[in-house]
Amino acid sequence: MKWETAVWMVACLLFTSLPRGQPYKAYHAFVGETVVLPCATTSVGELALSHSKLYWQIDSLLVHFFHNGRDSLASQNPRYHGRTSLFLDEMKHGNFSLKLSNVQLLDAAVYTCIYRQTGDLPNITQKSKIQLIVSVPSSTEKTPSPSGHSQISPRSPAVAPCLAILPLSFHILVTLGIWHL
Known about the structure:
Helix content: 10-25%
CATH class of the domain at 23-133: Mainly Beta
Keywords: Cell membrane, Disulfide bond, Glycoprotein, Immunoglobulin domain, Membrane, Receptor, Signal, Transmembrane, Transmembrane helix
Pfam family, one: V-set
Largest sheet: 6 strands, mixed
Number of strands: 9
Main location: membrane
Number of helices: 3
Shape: elongated
Subcellular location: Cell membrane
GO cellular component, one term: external side of plasma membrane
C-alpha cells in the first residue's frame, strides 16, 4: 500500500470521528457548579440598553429575558428562577453572557442567545447557540475549582471521540512504516 493511501485512510478515520451536526460551541459543567455561557455582540461602541432585548432560551422555554435596560423575569421558566444572571456592568460593551448557578442535569440543552436592538438606532438582531453538557462528578474526578465556575475542559465528552481515535491512527502510521519511532 502506498503511503499516500495510508495517510488518506488515517485522515478519513479522524474526520469521521469528529462530532457532527453541532454548528455551535459545547461547554461542560458538573451538577452543582456555576457555568458561564458566552454570548457577545459584534457591534462597535457602547450599546443603548434602553432599546435592547436579550433572550436566553431553549427552544420556546424562556431561561432569561432582559428588556429596556433591566431584567424582566416574569415569564422565566420556574426551573431557572434564582439561578440565572447577566453581567449588567458589561452589557453596554456587548457581553451578554449568561451565568447559570447550581447546574442541574436537566439544564443540559442547546441554549440560544438572541440580542435585538430597536428604536431610533439601526435594528440589529444577533443570534448564537451554545450547547451545555452536564454530568455528575465521579468520585475519581477533581472537585470543582474554589470559585465554583466551570472551565472549558479539553477532555469534555464533546471531544472524547477525537481523543479516542488518535492512538489508533498513530498505530496505523507506525504499522505501515510511515511514522518511524
